Amino acid sequence: MRFTVLGPVRAWRNDVELELGPPKQRALLALLLVRAGQPVALSEIVDVLWAQDPPSTAVNVVHRHVGSVRRLLEPGLPARAEGSRLVRRSGGYRLNADADALDLLRFRHLRESARHAAAAGEPERAAGLFTQALALWQGPTATGVPADVQAHPVFSGVDRELLAVAKEAATTALDSQVPERLPTVLQQFAAQHALDETLQARLIQVLAATGRRAEALEVFSAARDGLAEQLGVTPGPELRAAHRRLLPRPARDAPGPPARTDPAPPARTDPVAPVQPGDPAAPITAPAVRPAQLPPDLPVFSGRQAELAGVGALLPEGADTGSPAPLVISAIDGMAGVGKTTLAVRWAHRVAHRFPDGQLYANLRGFDPTGSVMSPNEALRSFLHALGVPPSRVPTGLDAKTALYRSLLAGRRTLVLLDNAVDSAHVRPLLPGAPGCLTIVTSRNQLHGLIAGEGARPLTLGPLSPAESHEALVRRLGTDRVAAEPRAVATIVRLCGRLPLALAVVAARAATRPSFPLSSVAAELLEGQGNLDAFAGADPSTDARTVFSWSYRALDPAAARLFRLLALHPGPEVSTAAAASVAGLPLRVTRALLATLTGAHLLCEHAPGRYTFHDLLRAYAMELVRDHDAEEIRRDARHRMFDHYLHTARTAATLLAPHRTEPLPLSPPRPDAGPEHLGSQDRAEAWLSAERAVLLSAVGHARDHGFPAQSWQLAVTLELFLDRRGHWQEQAAVQRTALGAARSLSDRLGEAHAHRTLGFAEGRLGRYDEAYGHLERALELFAELDQGDGRARTLRALAFLCNTQGRHQRALDHYRPALGLYRASAHLSGQASVLNEIGWTHVLRGEYEHALARCRQAVELHRRIGDSAGEAAALDSVGYAYHHLGRYEQALTSYRRALGVYREISDRYLEADTLIHQGDTRLAQGDVATALADWGAALEILRELNHPDARVLEGRLRQHRQSPRPTSALSG
Q: Do 844 and 803 form a contact (C-beta atoms < 8 A)?
């Protein structure tokens, strides 16, 4: 038999290609081939074949496909025959194959041979072997299986493996002086990964080294254009450096500086202040990032030509040429719904090309009906993230954030749009401090302080003129329909108060009733005239409540009810599933109702399946829900909503760490709450990432609206996710909220958990006094409650804190009673974790034999209970101990086993951590190239996660490159 999976899934028997059957059967074979020689659990097969909602018959279907595959590969052979290629093992199945039979195994064999040749000082042979390995690639792994199956990490992980080897092969080929062997296969990989700058840079270097300079220049141009079109960014330093080497150098005696030939300004880095005063004083740098945050321009924008001309005149011509220009601030004010944001966004898009360093945008929610004004602190945190600062490196104080923000913008030409501000004080910390930037501010209030103190140029925006209002209706309803009824149009314009938002809502409703005359629209507006408090004024024609109430009354009762209840959601956006839970309705029904609301412009679907209110419409919905729905109805809706978020978050946390999810006394969800079925670790990670802002808001919202138990339980549930992602400041803030919620209930267990999680977060941020205080209080509370596992978890947190400060003996003093508590409660996962942590503490003390003994115990115990994530963590510790004992091959074996598990369970952060350790061992062996490859792979993951550890690893790589004699002293 012969198989391929590096591209189309195919199989041959005696050189006759086999027909592999239906898609699911082909996918099953692909999975068994990718995992050849290893048992694949039945549960994993189901997860791969049905990424979402497996049928109740899934296991039977798998058994049927297995039988078909066995008969296909070995016709006539009994199922359990000796020497069978497909065998049943450990609750799953294993396909036996060797490197001669399977292209993936052949690829890995050639890769390892190439690495050994490179390590042995035979770079030419290594380059040849790498080329042979890559030549086996025929396209994305498992081509031909269903797309949702092919996207599973078990297959995409092989693609990443191939990509890493392509880069490694290019480096080896360049070092070997025989790059001509590689261009064709490298071009195939580069075409598949057009946005991978490292790979494109390697291809440019290989083409240049083989004399194909014109092709190399074409590769750069295509890469540059692709990055601009698809990501809105310019080439990074590695790609620009490869391009520079293609260009002719100016003569040394040429007068004046050399002409700049780069297509974009060189990348620059900016100082990032340390998080805490006790942090290292060495400057920390953040890569220059070109944010592009402007909301989309409105296609049906009309009028405002005079205003656009006025604000356009504020920009000096120097902004186009790059010459120094003053800091320009424009303050646009006016009543709600008058179109301030629309005008600001239109102008910003017109001039964005004059600010090549990007655009920042924040809706400050100054008049949000829920009262959730975005503070300058929150806005600065968002801007710093957008400028490339990891969450954990953002300073804690407002002044420090402002200083860092202005430092990052110094020397840049950036456009900043601050929408919906309360007053001048609200935006002052958000103003850039250096010339060359444009700041546009919108507010319902005139910003006199900004005008007097900062020289802002004011623009008070009034309603549209009658002609502009007429044009707005023409844009939305068409010339013929508007021209046919001029009197009705004039009435509509007058009753809408010439407010752009009101006109848009009325036009949307009219557009959905094309057979109705506009006179009927005007008559309904006249009939329902009323007042909207937010728009109260002397002239009733400027009151917009009539427009909103008419649009609302046109809804069927179910859509109207959903519109009202969604005002109870904390925002900033609501998913379809969450909306269904708020309303207590099935998903299918909710989708249809949401489509009705977006069609009427009462909601905006700003991303697929995610909805937002305009602030005026939220205010109107909030009025309605208070007036029309009893307190009991509102409370039930909030109860369903908090149950939805809490129980879905628990599901996600359990999928990501099934043996580490904190047991909590949760009440079952209401039957109509509708928690989401996630089904896989990837979907759990994606859900938590997408809902993070909503979940953080929900913790405070639950506390403030009578659901303190859900508040602290949700915060504790989010602990591991926020910690692994490095969102330590958010973690501390949300756990403080949880502590207040538990105290309001006099819930001692809730207080204990909140003190523990808050103490750990404070320790992450280096605030050790606060950390010890919270952890010691948690220990007292858990002891009073006779919660042994809670005490053990807290003792582990105290031990971790001691190890962080170098107090290793004190850490052991905490770990020993923690282990005893877990043994007393027969908590095997806790015992295994503590054994590993004790072993790690011995590593820190330099007691490597002791460490090895404890960590091996942890491996065996984790394996016995089926905790693969815990087993991988302990294997990593075993490898680390072996490394420091000089037993490098045994260390690498442990690391490889740990990496295999982390990749299977998609634990990206711990995969990166083990790759770093593996690179340290490679370096100690003298295998510098492979060490750098491991570190580089880890760095890619950490950057993808936007984790603070990325900056630490960048520093180590920089130190290694600068060191004339690199050693394993870089391990840490």
A: yes
